[in-house]
Amino acid sequence: SQQNKMVPMYMRWIVVVFLAWGAIQHVVKLWFTLGYHKAVLYNHEPGPCRVVPGVEHGAEDITVLPNGLAFISSGLWLPGSPHSRSEVRGRILTFNFSDPERGVRELRFSEEFDRESFNPHGLSVWTDPLSGRVSVLVISHQRRKDQVEVFTYEPGSETLEHQETITDELIYSGNDLLALGPDSFYLTNDVSHGARGSTLARKLETYLLLPFGNVVFYNGTQARPVAEGLVSPNGVNMSPDRRYLYVGAGFTE
Questions:
Q1: What average pLDDT does this structure show over 161-190?
Q2: Alpha helices of the chain — where are they, by DSSP H?
Q3: DSSP letters of 122-147?
Q4: How does pLDDT run across 112-159, given as a tens digit for each residue?
């Protein structure tokens, strides 16, 4: 009958209205989360700004030593990037804020290191308080896994001497890390293990604001989670008194 035909149509309209309402709510939430509704509270202008030549494929992460020497990870490639993998070369650069006219310097790797597969993301630098030796820890994305490469910086030859490669089942979508020693660190995984290798899954987790990211601590032997349920955790750092760990989650108020 006509009445029986109207019921399914009525139910379909209810479903459409609820889905549309849910989509609108999510877009509004995303808008506010990204801060588009905020006016600029403080326009910080420390001085003239200029482009530093020699960083063709971006500076994904920068860590600065107390003496003004900055370490820069450059050449990150992820699926969906506008360039092919063969066009992008992973590099570690330095820039000395005490001598800015010198520009960036590309560090060499020790001969045994596989530089062809090096795909750097976050990096952190740790200085031994007794010897002064500088360790540089870098997240490197591989085809099927993530790993942390550990180097010793040799300033005289501007070389990174490869010390070891750290892998763990809890290091799978590394974004940033904070070195606490030559082989211990905190690390952020920005998406879930299942979304690590899928561009579509990564985007869905990010834009749906799904809290599947986490922070892990690697103690030199194995990793363990220390914070769960985060939305796209990114940068990680520690307060000067070492009491608090700070984690930047770009899609969280």
A1: 96
A2: 2-33, 199-207
A3: EEEEEE-TTT-PEEEEEEEE-SS-EE
A4: 999 999 999 999 999 999 999 999 999 999 888 899 999 999 999 999
65, 127 Cβ separation under 8 angstroms:
yes
* Residue in the block written with tokens 């877009």: 27
pLDDT(1) > 60? no
d(CA 183, CA 168): 13
pLDDT at residue 51 greater than cutoff 90: no
Do the Cβ atoms of 171 and 122 come closer than 8 Å? no
Q: Is the dihedral of CA 148, 154, 155, 157 positive or negative?
A: negative
Q: How far is CA 14 from the centre of its chain?
A: 41
Identify the active-site residue in 83, 121, 141, 193.
Answer: 121
Structure tokens of 33? 């989360």
Structure tokens at 169: 């089942």
Copy the structure tokens of residue 90.
């992973």
Q: Is 121 a catalytic residue?
A: yes
Question: Which residues have a Cβ under 8 Å from the Cβ of 197 and sit 6 or more positions away?
Answer: 144
Kindly calculate the radius of gyration of the chain based on its CA atoms and give it in whole angstroms: 22
